[in-house]
Structures are given as C-alpha cells and as structure tokens.
Amino acid sequence: MRNKPFLLRPSGKDYIWGGRRLNDDFAKNIDMNPLAETWECSTHPDGPSYAASGEYSGESLTHILHKHPEYLGSHPRTQGELPILIKFIDAKQNLSVQVHPDDEYARQYEGGQLGKTEMWYVLDAKPDTQLVYGLNHTMTADSLRRSIEKGTLERHLQRVPIQPDDVFYIEAGTIHAIGAGALVAEIQENSNLTYRLYDYNRVDKTGKQRPLHIDKALAVANLNSAEQPRQPIRSLKYRQGCATELLCRCKYFEVNRMLINTERVKQLVEYRADENSFRVLLCTNGCGTIFMDDGEYIKFFRGDCIFFPADSQAVCLHGKAQFLDVRG
Q1: Which of 24, 209, 222, 264 makes a 20 to 30 Å CA pair with 98?
Q2: 9, 196, 257, 327: the active-site residue
C-alpha cells in the first residue's frame, strides 16, 4: 500500500506564558515546564515534527518530504515545501500583543520567508478568558507608538470573550493575543515571524524582558478599527458514522471539524487524501484506530496528529473521536 499515513511526534516550546496542560491533558511527555506549544505538523527549522509510526519512524517530516515531494500533492501552493504549520497552544498567562507580516513583507524584509495568517480553534477556555482582536478605534502609527511608550496600549485593544468550539481567523496584519486560560489548536502558514508590540513588562528565566519589534510591527499592522469577529456559519453534513463541518477556507489552508462514531454502526468511515494535496488529522478528543488494507493499523488518542500523504489509498477510521481535518 503506497503513501501510508503515519503518526507525528511534535517539538515543544517552553515560552514563559505556557502551562502544563499539553503534558497533563494530551500526554505529550515532553520534558519542559512550562510547555507552551507543541508543533504537531511542522517542517519549520525552529521546531520540526517527526514520524512516530511506519517505515520512517524517527525521521523528521522535513527529511521525509525531501525524499518524497510527491507526498505534498499537485496543488501549486504545496510545491517545494509543507505550506502549513499545526500547533497546540496552552496559554496559562496572556500571550504578548503581537502582529505577523504578510507574504509580501516577509519575502522582501525577512529573507524570502512566508508571512503568517492563522486560524484558532478554541479547545477549552476559562469562563473569563478573552483574546485581543485588533484595535477598538482607528489609530496612527505615531499615536500607537506613543501609547506603547506610555504603557497605555491595552486601553486601545479590542477584547473578545471566547468559549470552547469558537473559531477565529487571524489575517496577517491583525494585532492580536491569546488570553490566559485558553487551550487552542492553531493552523497557520509555515512561518515563525512574530513582531511583539507589548509583553506586559515580563521577564524570562534569565531575568530579562523579551525583545519588542515595534518598528516592524507598525510597518505591517492594520491600525483601523477592527470589526467584532463573528463566528462562521457552520452546518454539519452527515454520513454513516461521520459528521463534518467547514471551519475555515482561505488561500493557505482548509480546515474542517470531523466527528466519527462507529461504535453503534457496522460500517467504518473511509478516509483518504487525493492527488491534489496532503491531509492532516489532529485528534482533539476521543480515540480510535486507523485500519489499512494490508492489515496494518494505527491507534490514535486525544492530542495525536496523523499525516496523510497526497494520493494515499483509502483507510478506515474506527472509534469515537473529534478531529480537525486540515488540507494544505
């Protein structure tokens, strides 16, 4: 059976705002405290993921895709390298107020890198958790800079309450921050470019404040008053043992929520990636098994990430689980 799916093992990040939930809730078993992020599907040099099953077990996803570029698919945006990066984020404290550049700015000023448009899917949130989404009124670059210097930036930020199952599309240029108490899955362009505007005057483990990037941030930030983000209209589509709904579709990725429950039906759920693009299943709840035609199988649990190469043969999913189904 060609182009078999395989489990991925993530890289971890111990940013100062992180907590313990990725180890405690998702059994990541990464020796970091805090564990702020796990880069579940990544070929980025700052945090690659690794095959954790199959014939390439232990090899980096970067190396596997270099050997098998056909695994990416025939779509133009998949040519050359993996175009996306998938993360779990545990925000025990507020993330910095930040902004990301778009592709054009990143290519010109960051050595040809990609920009960073992203999507958040809220897995869990405390009752009072909020996120920052843009400005609550239009500002100029000079007025925003003065507010940072005076320590009054927070009064100009639009804050949005969040709850589990919310979806937020964060276009490059949007000033934003995930708030304390949020557990989030993030799908983004394959980039690690972040320009910090404000970091609450925190210090890291060495006693130093993390650097800000105010000039670059002001060069790319949308300083217009932001509209209140609205949840997308979602409609579940059912077939035996499975239900799916579209969460986000943009020029960089498509994300669907997929629910499977084969415990009460005899028919398993068929799944595959076509020749156009790879697919990734990120299990956000539940567990089950992926059966392949040759008798091999993969057991998956909450927090697992499975990569399906393009033009993979159909497999059968069994269990009771929720996934984010991502196409590049």
Answers
A1: 24
A2: 196
